[in-house]
Batch of 4 targets.
Target 1
Amino acid sequence: MAKCEICGKGVTFGIKVSHSHRRSNRTWKPNIRKVKAMVAGTPKTISVCSRCLRSNKVTRAN
């Protein structure tokens, strides 16, 4: 699975519990986007989560 290259956010595991309390495994996947960003002064395609994009932790390349 992809990880955010800025904050390191990745897949989280847990347990899904139904109404009758049957338990099964599940995953929460982060909202990862491929973005062309400026890295060390050069444009490069990186994987970034939507929260890092929203909080302007990434400078987009034009």
Target 2
Amino acid sequence: MKKSATLHFSSKFINRNFRLKVSGMDAFGNKINKLVGVAGMLALIGVEMFNKLLDRATRCLEDVCVCKLRRGLKISFYSK
């Protein structure tokens, strides 16, 4: 039986502290450049990767934390 993954932070905490912007190419080859919510981010990259990037963004002391994935997505966490 596989253990289901959960977020380290609540969506309330994420939405209160960050603006999430994604740019690049999605899985279907379409260009994207938009603000997304927690559900949109989970659909794009999954729970495990989102947890890694959230941990990195909360440790970042700058106004924006930019994370680039190998598959061509650039995810920006803008601090509020």
Target 3
Amino acid sequence: MKHNLIIVDDHKMFLDGLRSIFEHENDYQICFTSKSAAAVIKYVEANPPSHIDLVITDLSMPEIDGVTLNTQLKAMDSQLKTLVVSMHYDPEVIDTLIEHDVDGYLSKNAQKEELLLAVQTLLKGGKYFSKEIKDIYTHHKFTQKKEQEVKLTRREIDVITLIAKEYTTKEIADKLYLSKHTIESYRKNLIAKLNVRNLAGLTRYALKKKYIQL
């Protein structure tokens, strides 16, 4: 029995390339291809999800992206397998996809053999993430854990906030009723504590923590 596949990618050349790969494999049947995630959702709504074994999707697509498509497909049928094949490696996106039970994530640079291995693994009930994706995800989680462990005092938050707002050392000292030497010590300690290289790193941290708004 052949496995039914859906392929969605807004780049026709890549879509045709995937179609060609699976058309030359005896175990697969392509039941639908599209450049639109919205069209895939309509197709799945009109056909029993149990008749569809796997949806292979890009991430960056107009109107509905691959993250939203995965979420909606899983809401329609949690047993429906989804494989993301993309050039984008944003750790936040990878994290979101994993939280919404994506079954696999592969780079568009992957060889045909790895693509087929990923598909076979998913159809057997497993998960498949390329080494590159796993490394990015692991590093992101490790970084998140380290950040969670870092606790800034109220005074350190005051200092980093004013640094991010481009106050000078003297202006910060005057505002917080501290000496310039004390502010310089805070700055050096913050750079070491947050494992950043300079004031730009402190500013990025303050923005990330929403101590200041753009």
Target 4
Amino acid sequence: MTPIMWLIIFVILLGIEIATMALTTIWFAAGALVSFALSFTGIGTEAQLVVFVIVSFVVLILVRPFAKKYVNGAITKTNAESLVGKQAKVTAAVDNLNATGAAIINGQEWTARSVRDDLVLKEGTIVTVKEIRGVKLIVADDAR
């Protein structure tokens, strides 16, 4: 392949990465850059493609864990995700077997279910939100 083709591939992949910031194409852009440099040495197209694939996957395997940690590591939980671990007050008895229950947290009432099917949580109980499934709080009474 000509150096121009590798340069075009590199620019396209880099542009996609800049547009998405999803850490998906940057690895292949690195491979394209190395293949671009190799294209000036007279190495054949097949060898350039092999180097492109190898470099892309080596960079992916070695760099991705660090990049994810530092680039996406500072994501702040928002909306419902931020409720996990907080306390809520049961406003209607939580009974999984009868499919009833509600709890209030941050001034909003949610449908609530217990982490255990055999446990009924009475109205007024303070519970901890363990997870959110769809539009339901999954709660546990830490006192038990």
